[in-house]
Structure prediction request, 218 residues.
Amino acid sequence: MAGRPLIAPYEHVIWDWNGTLLNDVLLCVEIANQLLANHNDLRLDQAAYREVFGFPITAYYHRIGIDLEKEPFDELTKKFFATYDQAVLDCQLHLGVQQLLGHFQNSDKQQYILTAAFKKSVLELLQHFDIHHFFAEIEGLDNHRAESKVDRGRQLIRNRAIRANQAVLIGDTLHDFEVAEAIGVDCILVANGHQSQRRLENGVGNKARVIGRIEELG
Prediction:
């Protein structure tokens, strides 16, 4: 595990959870297809999903042909998590995550999670995967609506008195880039999560680094 040129300048590493550390993409594709069965004949594969998924989630549902006037967003959210909360225990972390977290800890990096997921559920999963001890703080939402996490990010910066030029946010979606810009920290996006490398590179231009796999951080 020699050298971390991408991370070396930073004292604080802010991780996204879903898609970045947790490999839950295929599960989300399967649930999307279950939801679509009630609306149209469209089925998504992983490549198609990664071209349409994004935030806000309501816009993503619209892109895949779900009519939120016929089925309210809150009802879809309940259906999604009725399946997700059970099946996610069968998901895995991305390859190399535990080793990378351990290396950063040994290198005196302070690590945090900033997620648009329900905080209580993420805490339970961190215990399940036995990686909770790597993180100084977890910032997540108090609901399942997967709304913007900008406010939570600002709160994290305040709570930990983090200097923006000493921090980097690592995520897998353009929303992570938007959050990083909003809270004033650098951003690295990993293209093996919920959005394709093409979308990420087109979306950030030269304002953030896009890598193909999380192992490249190591």
Observations:
- The chain has a mean pLDDT of 92.
